[in-house]
Design a protein that fits this description.
This protein is of the alpha/beta class. It has a single domain, classed as 3-Layer(aba) Sandwich (Hypothetical Protein Ychn, Chain: A), CATH 3.40.1260. The chain contains four helices and seven strands, in the order E-H-E-H-E-H-E-E-E-H-E. It is globular, with a radius of gyration of 15 Å. The protein starts with 5 loop residues before the first strand and ends with a strand. The model has no long low-confidence stretch (mean pLDDT 92).
Length: 135
């Protein structure tokens, strides 16, 4: 059996106005379907993808933000969010959607998927991956 590879999907763009965020989400689902070790990173304007209370009605665009909450069902449970990117945009972790997964090893306890990291920690995380895809 082939060894799992570590895939990190780096999200740097705002959620709407371009196709990058939606395309990244679709590629994440494909990676998860092939049972790889999939995690996501949100930095720069990518942190806006996880904002709570997104309303896209005025933009006439589909709100896909709720899809992030379903990724735990596909074993995508690590959402690394760069603290500096949040701060530079006047945001905190509390401004983000609550995204959780159920940990089977701990009697299906709900655990947070969002992991705040510093810029230095993010750089180290990126260096540890087998595959890095940036959107």
């Amino acid at each position: 059996m082939a060894q799992k590879k570590k895939f990190l999907y780096v999200n740097r763009k705002a959620p709407y106005g371009t196709i990058y965020a939606l395309e990244a989400l679709e590629v994440v689902l494909i990676g998860a379907a092939f049972e790889q070790d999939v995690s996501l990173a949100f930095l720069d304007d990518g942190v806006f993808q996880l904002m709570a209370g997104q309303d896209t009605a005025a933009a006439s665009m589909k709100n896909f933000s709720r899809t992030f909450k379903a990724l735990g069902d596909y074993d995508v449970r690590k959402f690394y969010v760069e603290r500096e990117s949040l701060a530079e945009r006047g945001l905190t972790v509390e401004d983000l959607m609550p995204i959780t997964y159920e940990d089977e090893a701990e009697d299906y306890a709900e655990k947070p998927s969002i992991i705040p990291v510093s810029r230095a920690e993010m750089a180290a995380l990126i260096a540890q991956q087998d595959v890095v895809l940036s959107f």
